[in-house]
Amino acid sequence: MNPTLLRCSIIAALGGLLFGFDTAVISGTTDHLKRVFDLEGGGLGFTVASALIGTILGAVFASYPSDRIGRRSTLIWIAILYFVSAVGSAAAWDWYSFLAFRLLGGLGVGASSVVAPMYIAEISPPRFRGRLVAITQFNIVLGILVAYMSNYGVALLDFGAIEWRIMFGIEALPAAIFFALMFLTPRSPRWLVAQGRSAEAARVLEMVGAEDVGRELREIEESLAQTAKSAKEPLFQEKHRRPVSLAVAIATFNQLSGINALMYYAPHIFRMAGAGEDSSLAQAVIVGCTNLVFTMAALLVIDRFGRCKLMVVGSIGYILSLAATAAAFYRYGTEFTDFGSTVVLVSLMVFIASHAFGQGAVIWVYLSEVFPNRVRAKGQALGSFTHWVFAALISWTFPVIADLSGGHTFAFYASMMVLQLIWALKIMPETKGVPLEEIEKRLSG
Fold it and tell me: What are the residues whose beta carbons fall under 8 Å from the beta carbon of 346, sequence distance 6 or more?
């Protein structure tokens, strides 16, 4: 693989590491936030979900700067959002200032979920595209693990009242590194062609190891030929119906698995199942390690086995693990034995492994593939918007409904994954190894 291509993909995917860190870091602070800001179930849920409101906005509007100033420049601004959010959340002087800075971080997460995989997909040849875009997912789960480990380490050092502030502030360091490294990457060749800068695009294609620069450039130019006369082409029209429906479906199912409930509330869930404070943070680290290992496994095989097979395997794992977790909560309620706690820990490890190997590895790759070039930014924004709307709903409501019935909560997630399995088997088309322009032809109305 071309070293420049790999380096640029890894740097762009650092946006995913910050995405994961920002997503998971709050999980270690929920008890502090409840005490400092005097929050209960609904209030805590809204506080956790506040970043996701920003995430929704970031996902919706990311297509505009990415099309106007370019994918690379947008990622640079995303790094700035992450940095300001980290410092501001750590220094928050009241609940409202905390919500405002968390919302800024959410803007970065939402925009990153659109732009980072888009940039990588647009610089990658088809045979490497799946595994390179999946580096973003690898970095997301690495960021989640780093957040869990950081929270656990900070808790062990016992900083007292400022412990939660340190947990948030640590994110500023990787944000600054991401900002600096992005200046070492080239612009997207597809964006350059759309701006009429084909000579520059050819140089970038050559830098990243394109086998036939002239042919790839012609294919990009042909795909974008209608852009000048249809720059405002709407996403919602009949010829885009199929990619739109695929994006909405995969994004919706991703969150109806309950994955963000686990990401945001892992220690809380383990405390519900009888674990102590330090033990619950340590178990969250175990979940993060499992997530990382199985994401690495998926990264190695996504271009060999294809997207659909990973979705099917992951769906089966989801169903079994969520059903087992629901059964444990039905059996033990609020009086968990050591055996019951172990069942929940093992089941959620299987759950996170299933997510990492299936949906987690596939979703951002798939969203970067199924839309035509001229509406790709809008399409990925739609997919990310759908994803984050459901993430906000799950995160906001989880503390309330889980306290009422943990069994019902996990049984619902399991039933949704049965529907996902049917969708993956019957409806989802395979995109493995298919050039972006050919996918456009296959899925167009």
Answer: none
The amino acid at 384: S
Q: Give the highest mean pLDDT range of 141-145, 370-374, 408-412.
A: 408-412
What's the angle, vertex CA 240, arms to CA 239 and CA 241, rounded to 5? 95
b/e per residue 64-73 (b: at least 16 CB within 10 A): ebbbeebbbb
The rounded distance, in Å, linking the Cα atoms of 144 and 405 is 27
- For residue 189, the one-letter residue type is P
Pick the CATH number of 3-185+237-443 from 3.40.1350.10, 3.40.50.150, 3.40.50.620, 1.20.1250.20: 1.20.1250.20
What are the pLDDT digits (tens) for 94-151? 999 999 999 999 999 889 888 988 898 888 887 787 778 778 777 887 898 899 999 9
- More confident: 126 or 208: 208
Q: Name the burial class of residue 268, with classes exposed (0-12), middle (13-18) and buried (19+) by CB atoms within 10 angstroms of its CB.
A: buried
- One-letter amino acid of 443: L
35: amino acid identity, one letter: R
Query: What is the average pLDDT across 312-329?
Result: 95
Give the pLDDT of residue 277.
64
Q: Which two tokens stand for residue 365?
A: 């790759």
Tokens standing for 209? 């190891």
Q: Name the residue ranges covered by the structural domains of the chain.
A: 3-185+237-443
Secondary structure (DSSP) of 384-441: HHHHHHHHHHHHHHHHHHHHH-HHHHHHHHHHHHHHHHHHHHHTPPP-TT--HHHHHH
Window from 123-137, 151-165, 220-234, 256-270 with minimum mean pLDDT: 220-234
Nearest C-alpha neighbor of 176 from the set 48, 35, 34, 14: 14
For residue 69, the SS3 value is coil
Token pair 């490890």 is found at 349
Note the helical H segments in 224-337.
241-256, 259-272, 277-305, 307-332
Query: Would residue 258 be called left, alpha or beta, if left means φ above 0 and alpha means ψ between -120 and 50 degrees?
Result: left
pLDDT at 397: 86
